[in-house]
């Protein structure tokens, strides 16, 4: 692992070792994968103008997420079926997050029961998909509360699963030893291989309720005291409406390019959403983050933190907890270097930097700190 000096190295090694179907399931996007590519392009286009002569002798990557300290402004994104890449699955990933002092978000579609993951400890959030069975939704909420999870993250951008052509071409289905453990195994749909179709998409069509609306969010608020995070917000009007309902955080996300192909990059959506929210709740950026400098770019654009997904799955695939932890170490090291090189004592200080949207463009004024 020491020879892998960036996330790109980790991904390259993991791709070479994984089954092609699993590799495509992790790395692929929806449609022509335009949004998947746009996420990276948008972040690459953000240029931060360093400050000099600041007299800065030290810096800290630490942050506060949902009122709790974190070693850096980063939480592990919810990712389904982690036993696909390593037998340790979600427990191994949770150990890496705990070791690095960052929150870990457990998916409704985890391949390990949420209670077993909780025994690892650390700062745990539970991601909730809106299911057709309202009783099962409430059951999952209660299980998360009883197991000591600290927040609920409601994913709001999957009324149906985006058409992921790689999975369809592969006829992708879960192997027998990997199940939706929180849903009693998830039935047989996710394991039933069909030519030209994704069995995982078949399962979500059966299980997910596409009619999720604002009244459902109010119902959820009435049935839990846990902080609520909305993941998948792309429009400032929705962000403003969420903030007015007292949501503790929103995640600006296009689901890693895996839902609506042709949607804008998450980084492009962040500044107007930050303006609409105006500090009433925390904002996390998801989709495309691959370096510590990306984390600082997100902060400069108005985010309080980021979610990291695929890079940690690549690390998990290579060496379980150690591989995921190594990936987190790389990101923290790069973030610390970016702080030093831009003259920022903390990630939030990046909001005072001048941002150049692309080479040759006039600089934008700094955001209010």
Automatic annotation (TrEMBL):
Q: Does the keyword Flavoprotein apply?
A: yes
Question: Residues in the active site?
Answer: 255
Q: Name the InterPro entries on file.
A: Aldolase_TIM, Alpha-hydoxy_acid_DH_FMN, FMN-dep_DH, FMN_HAD, FMN_hydac_DH_AS
Q: Where is this region: Disordered?
A: 350-369
Please verify whether the record's keywords include Transit peptide: no
Matching SUPFAM superfamilies: FMN-linked oxidoreductases
What Pfam families does the record tag this protein with?
A: FMN_dh
Tell me the residue numbers annotated for binding glyoxylate.
129, 164, 255
The molecular function terms of the Gene Ontology recorded here are: FMN binding; oxidoreductase activity, acting on CH-OH group of donors
Residues that, per the record, bind FMN: 78-80, 107, 127, 155, 231, 253, 258, 286-290, 309-310
What cofactor requirement does the entry state? FMN
Family (UniProt)? Belongs to the FMN-dependent alpha-hydroxy acid dehydrogenase family.
Xref: PANTHER family: 2-HYDROXYACID OXIDASE 1 (PTHR10578:SF107), S -2-HYDROXY-ACID OXIDASE-RELATED (PTHR10578)
- The entry's protein name is Alpha-hydroxy-acid oxidizing protein
Give the species this sequence originates from.
Bailinhaonella thermotolerans
């Amino acid at each position: 692992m020491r020879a892998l000096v960036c996330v790109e190295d980790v991904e390259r090694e993991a791709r070479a070792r994984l089954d092609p179907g699993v590799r495509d399931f992790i790395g692929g996007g929806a449609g022509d994968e335009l949004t998947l590519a746009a996420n990276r392009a948008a972040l690459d286009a953000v240029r931060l103008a360093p400050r000099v002569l600041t007299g800065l002798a030290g810096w800290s990557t630490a942050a506060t997420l949902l009122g709790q300290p974190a070693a850096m402004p980063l939480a592990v994104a919810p990712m389904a079926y982690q036993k696909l890449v390593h037998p340790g699955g979600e427990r191994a990933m949770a150990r890496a997050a705990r070791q690095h002092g960052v929150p870990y978000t457990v998916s409704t579609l985890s391949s390990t029961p949420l209670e077993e993951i909780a025994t690892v400890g650390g700062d745990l959030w539970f991601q909730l998909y809106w299911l057709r069975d309202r009783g099962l939704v409430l059951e999952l909420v209660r299980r998360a509360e009883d197991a000591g999870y600290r927040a609920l993250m409601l994913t709001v951008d999957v009324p149906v699963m985006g058409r992921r052509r790689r999975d369809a071409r592969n006829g992708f289905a879960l192997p027998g030893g990997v199940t939706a453990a929180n849903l009693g195994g998830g039935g047989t749909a996710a394991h039933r291989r069909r030519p030209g179709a994704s069995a995982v998409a078949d399962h979500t069509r059966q299980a997910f309720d596409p009619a999720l609306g604002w009244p459902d969010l109010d119902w959820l608020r009435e049935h839990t005291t846990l902080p609520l995070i909305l993941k998948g917000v792309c429009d400032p009007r929705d962000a403003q409406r969420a903030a007015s309902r007292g949501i503790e955080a929103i995640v600006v996300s296009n689901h890693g390019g895996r839902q609506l192909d042709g949607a804008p990059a998450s980084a492009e959506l962040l500044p107007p959403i930050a303006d609409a929210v105006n500090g009433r709740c925390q904002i996390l950026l998801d989709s495309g983050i691959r370096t510590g400098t990306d984390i600082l770019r997100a902060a400069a654009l108005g985010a309080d933190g980021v979610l990291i997904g695929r890079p940690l799955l690549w690390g998990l695939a290579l060496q379980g907890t150690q591989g995921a932890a190594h990936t987190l170490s790389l990101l923290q090291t790069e973030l610390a270097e970016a702080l030093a090189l831009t003259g920022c004592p903390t990630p939030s200080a990046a909001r005072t930097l001048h941002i150049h949207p692309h080479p040759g463009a006039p600089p934008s004024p700094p955001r209010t700190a």
